[in-house]
Amino acid sequence: MTALRPGMRGTALILVLWLIVLLTSVIGAFALLARIESLQGRVLVRGLVASGAARAGVEYALTRVGLSDPRLKWRPDGRSYHWRYGDADVEVQMTDESGKVDLNQADAPLLAALIQRVASAEGGARMDPSQAARLAAAIIDWRDPDPLTQAAGGGEDADYASAGLPYGAKDADFESVAELEQVIGFTPQLYARLEPYLTVYSGRARPDAAYAAGPVLDALGLNGTDLVAQRRGADANGLAQGVPGDIVGVAGGGSGTYSIDSRARLADGRESLLRVVVRVGGGALPGMAYTPLRWEEGASPR
Predict the structure, then answer these.
(1) Cα separations in angstroms, 197 against 12, 95, 102, 219
(2) How far apart are CA 218 and CA 78, in angstroms?
(3) Rounded CA gap, 31 and 19, in Å?
(4) 101-117: pLDDT as tens digits
(5) Which of 1, 21, 182, 210 is 20 to 30 Å from 202 at the Cα level?
(6) What topology is assigned to 101-206 in CATH?
(7) H/E element holding 267?
(8) Are 135 and 112 in contact (CB under 8 A)?
């Protein structure tokens, strides 16, 4: 073979070096892509595990609330319960919807009392009773079919137009608690404070004090702080937190319609939050023991 001249050998060496650099870059890119996909797959899998644990918390809570043994029964009054599911720590809060104020059934004085109590909580400035009465009247005007404004103020179509809103009073029942954000006078901050104590599913004019939270009890004219403390203190000695070995039956007690917050945290810090409202019985799918009325899922990535 003819020997390469020195100049040609130098050019060939440079080409080989560039080829090595190119191949190294390609291999590095593939390795980086594979690692990214691996990490993405891991995050996805851990997210599914956390989500599954949160879902298990809902299912388990519905089982525990139906037990007859008071030492094992979970009380649907908003208290927190902790449960270990696989490698996940699950915290569940369960509230009977009958313990909340129904936006479609409560009268103006009860609504005003709750609004004033919640708006003035957490060290905030006390809301004027007349302002609370106007907000309660706006709720009544939103749901009632007539065009007449409540004596306390309220809000009908003309009031919404004056406020520059592109809609008027609905003149029909609330379909969800979130609809309250559309009612004239309600700010996002006030809605966020009220939302935990409101429902559209109880069908009751007055909440059931056995399951009501402190602010709702206060709105009913009771001492919420003392009653909640007494309620939970009475159960503290006999209520077991462990997993019973012979769980049977379905959810029972109370109204059978519950709001449940289930938060699952894995060992690596991954979390998933499931917020639902469910009604026991009449499952939408075969084998389901409940009907979901609201279903919200969230997660905090790691």
Answers:
(1) 79, 10, 9, 11
(2) 16
(3) 18
(4) 999 999 999 999 999 99
(5) 182
(6) Ribonucleotide Reductase Protein R1; domain 1 (1.10.40)
(7) none
(8) yes
Record the tokens describing residue 123, joined without a space. 């060290």
> What are the domain boundaries of the chain?
1-100+243-302, 101-206
Q: In 3D, which of 227, 284, 290, 220 has the Cα closest to residue 258?
A: 290
62 neighbors 250 (Cβ within 8 angstroms) = yes
213 and 227 Cβ atoms separated by less than 8 Å:
no
The model's pTM is 0.79
Write the pLDDT tens digit of every residue in 136-159. 999 999 999 999 999 888 899 999
Q: Looking at residue 289, what is its pLDDT?
A: 79
Q: Which two tokens stand for residue 163?
A: 């406020």
User: Where does the pLDDT of residue 124 fall: very low under 50, low under 70, confident under 90, or very high at 90 and above?
Assistant: low
With tokens 């009612």, the residue in question is 183
Q: Is the dihedral of CA 92, 96, 101, 105 positive or negative?
A: positive
Compute the distance between CA of residue 97 and CA of residue 187 in angstroms, rounded to an integer.
Answer: 24
The model's pLDDT over 26-80, given as tens digits with 9 standing for 90+, comes to: 888 877 777 777 666 666 767 788 999 999 999 999 999 988 888 889 999 999 9
Amino acid found at 260: I
